[in-house]
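Reviewers of the previous submission asked for a worked example of the structure-prediction workflow described in the proposal, so we include one complete record here. The input consisted solely of the amino acid sequence. No template or homolog information was supplied to the procedure at any stage.
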Amino acid sequence: MELDIAVQLDYAVGGPVDLLLQIEAAELDDQRILDATLDTGWAGDGWRIASESGVGRRQWLSLTNDFQCTYNARVAIDRVAPDFAELPQVIAHNLPGEVVRYLMPSRFCPSDTFQTFVMAEFGDTTGGARIAALRDWIEDRFAYVPGASGPRTTALETFVQRQGVCRDFAHVLITMARASTIPARFASVYAPDVNPPDFHAVAEVYLDDAWHLVDPTGMADPTTIARIGVGSDAADVAFMSSFGPMSLRQQRVSVMRA
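From that input alone, the workflow returned the following structure tokens.
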């Protein structure tokens, strides 16, 4: 299938700002960029730097004036959704070195505090069956409530409140997966059917020697998702990180099946 992606960003800048931008869909084996244009208002591309785990593209921009940016792309998705119940867990000491970091607690995902709960509630499952059970448990028990959380909300706080947005749902699943000794990471993505339309966040879990997308909100089918970037949690892969005074004037994200 193919997606048409359109993004418009408009921010007021109150002084010199260093901006780290990551909004371009990644070129990967299971998703191909058929056409794309990014206009940041700069004469060049800014300063390109490496992305987390080699997924996606990000760049620094140095701003003194208000920031307007547009991104348009058509992306072909070629991915089969797995039957999680059939996916085996990889024994920890057999994990590739670059995957091990995604077993560890991180700023928004304190997985070491969830081990007792996960074993008590889901101890009769392993591997992909455990992930499917976690996904369904979160989707059934948590309410999607825009404005219920903020940029500093952790998975533990979301677990207690039982409400949040896609970022929070992803953090809870990642936390519980890591507490189950299953590597998990945060993925910033584009996906149709997200309501309200916006940048979206899901989890990726490492099973059967591969990464697999999981959306605990239930809004996005993994076969329709285009990854932007990945990281340990939202701190690693924000679509925009500003170091200086900026304020939102307008932001629009549209993701449609072509």
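The first helix runs from residue 97 to 100. We consider this example representative of the routine output the project will generate in years two and three.
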